[in-house]
Amino acid sequence: MYAIVNIAGQQFKVAKDQQIFVHRLQGDEGANIEFDKVLLAANGSDIKVGADALKGAKVSAKIVSHLKGDKVIVFKKKRRKGYKKKNGHRQQFTKIEITGIAL
């Protein structure tokens, strides 16, 4: 059984006991959260698709940890002008574990 769910503006294909990285979510480590924007749910050959979201369908998850991604270097330069600018960025992520899919 799997589902396609909208988490923080992005769509993820999730299954039970799967761990995924999503953009930073509010909540403490070990807290349980639920997502109700389930776009598609499939159980074998039985597939249910909602117009926007399936009514009554929920995906429950547990927050495993909060962490930062790899550093991305942003380097800007304009040739022959002496302009150089170097900047770095580390995106904040939340690692969640899917505990169940309810239709």
What does this molecule look like?
The protein is mostly beta strands and about 100 residues long. The protein has one domain. The chain has no helices and 8 strands. The protein has strands at about 1-5, 10-15, 20-25, 30-35, 40-45, 45-50, 60-80, 85-100. The strands form 2 sheets. A 4-stranded antiparallel β-sheet has the order 2-1-5-6, with no helix packed on it. Strands 3-8-7-4 form a 4-stranded antiparallel β-sheet, with no helix packed on it.
Alpha carbon gyration radius: 19 Å
In angstroms, what separates the terminal alpha carbons?
11 Å
The helix content, as a percent range, equals: under 10%
Number of domains: 1
Number of helices: 0
Mean pLDDT over the full residue set: 95
The largest sheet, given as strand count, sense and whether it forms a barrel, is: 4 strands, antiparallel
Main β-sheet, spatial strand arrangement = 2-1-5-6
Secondary-structure element sequence?
Answer: EEEEEEEE
